[in-house]
Amino acid sequence: MVESCSGSGSIQSNKLICSPSSQSTAKVNNSSLSKRTMVKYYTGIQVFKFTWDQVASSFWQRYPNPYSKHVLTEDVISREVIDKKLYTKRLLTKTNPVPKWGERFVRGPPQICIVEESIVDPIAKTVTTYTRNIGLQRIMLLEEKCVYLTNPENNHWTVCERAIQAFGLERYKKNVTKANQGFQHILEKCYLPETSELKSQGKLKLKQTAIKASQLARHPVLSAASQIS
């Protein structure tokens, strides 16, 4: 994955998408972000070795997956087709560790609500998403834009171009890695079931080997016996 990170900045397209029929277009609250001196900007590119059709189809099946256990719920708020484009707005609930200094602002389990707005354009072959948090804004801020499009160097692959503006950037960069791993897992599960099964078997075998090694380490007699045999 190619990535870059700079200091404070702003996502160029600061307009959250809504259907053209909507009278009230949601906009990113740039003024609130500008007040946060620690807001940083991050861009990255992830290549998925699957066609755009496969990626676009699997986009709605991303959760649950082993890498995104922090995603608790996902609900569709609205969905409509306009000018042959699919407009969707979803609400996701996630858990997110709160920094020590922010614990006094949170009561109970730290859960955050995320709004994801997307446009799927099957003609241009693009999936564009805008994501922002609407909860816990006093202690964390996130604005993210992702564009999934055909890789210009290989039309059998798909590129995800991601731009993030966040308060507490390192936390979100780790989440990006998990998101990419989770989506890769779903794609392999859908289109490469044998590969996915082999990976699962390999992980299980490694886990069993690690458990056996741990047991031997705790029992010197067993360890010595295994070396003799």
From TrEMBL:
A Pfam family recorded for this sequence: PRELI
Segments forming domain PRELI/MSF1: 39-218
GO cellular component annotations of the record: mitochondrial intermembrane space
PROSITE patterns documented for this protein: PRELI_MSF1
Stretches assigned to coiled coil: none
Transmembrane segments: none
InterPro entries membership: PRELI/MSF1_dom, Slowmo/Ups
Domain of life of the organism encoding this protein: Eukaryota
PANTHER family (UniProt xref): MSF1/PX19 RELATED
Name the UniProt record assigns to this protein: Protein preli-like,PRELI domain-containing protein 1, mitochondrial
Lineage: Eukaryota, Metazoa, Spiralia, Lophotrochozoa, Mollusca
